[in-house]
Amino acid sequence: MKNIVNLSRCLAAVLLLSVSACVKDPKPETPHPPAPDWLLTKIEISEKRGEPEGGPVYYSYGREEYEYNQHYKPSLHRSYYGEDSNHMVLRYVDTLSYDNKLRPIRKGIKRETGAPYEVRYTYSGDDVNPTKEEQYSGGTLSWSTKFIYRDTIVYQISSHSDTTRHLYSERGNFLGSYYGDYGFLS
């Protein structure tokens, strides 16, 4: 009887050891990237428009707000617009998700119409900068924008407006934009 108990204990120990050998340690979680020095959370916009011959002058204001995910990528974008900075209304909210290469996919609903929209991006190979941006409303293409990248200039060619040139310093800092015939906008 003593031998059977000892044999049972040995078998239980061998069984426990064999099962524990099959259990793998969990892989460590993918580390999150380090926090950047700063994240853009809000852009305040004021615009003054007037006629070239001294006609009426119009003012408008806007605000863009961003929230970020654990990878420090924007996950929510809100856009506000108004005649003055104290009475702005929400224009739209974009929800941003990302593919397996952390490239954005935007979806949202326009406040004015209640229509859902989706912005699709096209990339060249494994590039992280989009070469084309298209907005679809109700499955129909609303507008598209092509991007051409040079050393210190990004050309933005839109289907619904003039070409915009965005200028950057050699260190990569944004300097301003040229929009159609309006010249330099900073």
How does the SSE layout of this entry go?
Blueprint: H1 2-22, E1 42-50, E2 57-68, E3 74-82, E4 89-98, E5 104-110, E6 116-123, E7 130-137, E8 140-149, E9 153-158, E10 164-168, E11 174-179, E12 184-185
Antiparallel strand pairs: 1-2, 2-3, 3-4, 4-5, 5-6, 6-7, 7-8, 8-9, 9-10, 10-11, 11-12
* Mean pLDDT metric: 75
Q: How would a textbook summarize the main sheet?
A: 12 strands, antiparallel
Work out the count of structural domains. Answer: 2
Give the strand tally: 12
What oligomeric state do the depicted chains represent? single chain
Written overview of the protein:
The chain is mainly beta and 186 residues long. It folds into two domains: 33-114, no CATH class; 124-181, no CATH class. The chain has one helix and twelve strands. The protein has one helix at 2-22, and strands spanning 42-50, 57-68, 74-82, 89-98, 104-110, 116-123, 130-137, 140-149, 153-158, 164-168, 174-179, 184-185. A twelve-stranded antiparallel sheet has the order 1-2-3-4-5-6-7-8-9-10-11-12, with no helix packed on it. Strand 9 (153-158) and strand 10 form a beta hairpin. The longest helix has 21 residues, at 2-22. Mean pLDDT is 75; it is low at 1-24.
Task: Give a short overview.
By secondary structure, this protein is mainly beta. Helix content is 11%, strand content 49%.
